[in-house]
């Protein structure tokens, strides 16, 4: 899951980035609202976390500008302000959650995962397709009751497929989700991860194909098929 973190304080920004990265998030951190707007307009994020007290504009202005630009990415406000009127105003402008500093990193991570799940249409933390189960909180995968051992990058690819189950995902979207725009490898690396995932899933199951290819559109997580029809294996 890729996070855009907007935090003006250098030490807080570094501490949050480390904590969220260790929790399995891919973090892009900036100090200003305008930088956040530029990134949110250019790249896709799973969730945005923003302080209200920004150096160039107020957090409410950032939220309003994001929503005016039709950016529907879920947004969590992280602030020292604990006034009910401020919280109500934040939700009214388009925020999806509000956490008051100080906070427990575990609670923040849990709230962010819940936001991403709900925005993707998943109420449960476990996404199931056929015999395949992906636990979005524990970051574990099972197939027909058997654990599937994946690398961090392989899991990140499967996670995005699970979050958007049934919808095609382009290589560019995978690269944003897994690497972020500052460290993009060649797009063929996604083909490598997809190939590895297919082999590991096939080795754990009876050979069903869970990841399909829509030519010219990308990859998709689908209900298992022994013999692919319109989708290429």
TrEMBL record:
Q: Which stretches make up the OmpR/PhoB-type domain?
A: 124-223
Sorted alphabetically, which keywords does the UniProt record give?
A: DNA-binding, Phosphoprotein, Transcription, Transcription regulation, Two-component regulatory system
Note whether Phosphoprotein occurs among the keywords.
Answer: yes
InterPro entries attached to this UniProt entry: CheY-like_superfamily, OmpR/PhoB-type_DNA-bd, Sig_transdc_resp-reg_receiver, WalR-like, WH-like_DNA-bd_sf
Residue ranges of the DNA-binding region?
124-223
Gene Ontology terms: biological process: regulation of DNA-templated transcription
Gene Ontology annotations for the cellular component aspect, listed alphabetically? cytosol; protein-DNA complex
Protein name per UniProt: Response regulator transcription factor
């Amino acid at each position: 899951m890729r996070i855009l973190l907007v935090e003006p304080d250098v030490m807080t920004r570094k501490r949050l980035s480390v904590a969220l990265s260790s929790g399995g998030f891919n973090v892009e951190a900036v100090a200003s609202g305008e930088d956040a707007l530029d990134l949110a307009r250019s790249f896709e994020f799973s969730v945005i976390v923003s302080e209200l007290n920004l150096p160039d504009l107020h957090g409410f202005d950032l939220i309003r500008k994001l929503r005016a630009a039709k950016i529907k990415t879920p947004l969590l406000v992280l602030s020292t302000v604990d006034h009910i009127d401020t919280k109500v105003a934040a939700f009214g402008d388009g925020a999806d959650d509000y956490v008051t500093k100080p906070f427990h990193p575990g609670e923040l991570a849990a709230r962010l995962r819940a936001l991403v799940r709900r925005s993707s249409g998943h109420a449960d933390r476990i996404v199931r397709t056929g015999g395949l189960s992906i636990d979005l909180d524990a970051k574990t995968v099972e197939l027909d009751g058997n654990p599937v051992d994946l690398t961090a990058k392989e899991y990140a690819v499967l996670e995005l497929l699970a979050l958007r189950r049934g919808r095609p995902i382009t290589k560019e979207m995978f690269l944003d989700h897994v690497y972020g725009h500052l460290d993009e490898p060649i797009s063929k690396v996604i083909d490598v991860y997809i190939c590895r995932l297919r082999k590991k899933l096939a080795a754990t199951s009876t050979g069903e194909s869970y990841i399909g290819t829509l030519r010219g559109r990308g990859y998709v997580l689908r209900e298992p098929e022994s013999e692919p029809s319109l989708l290429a294996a």
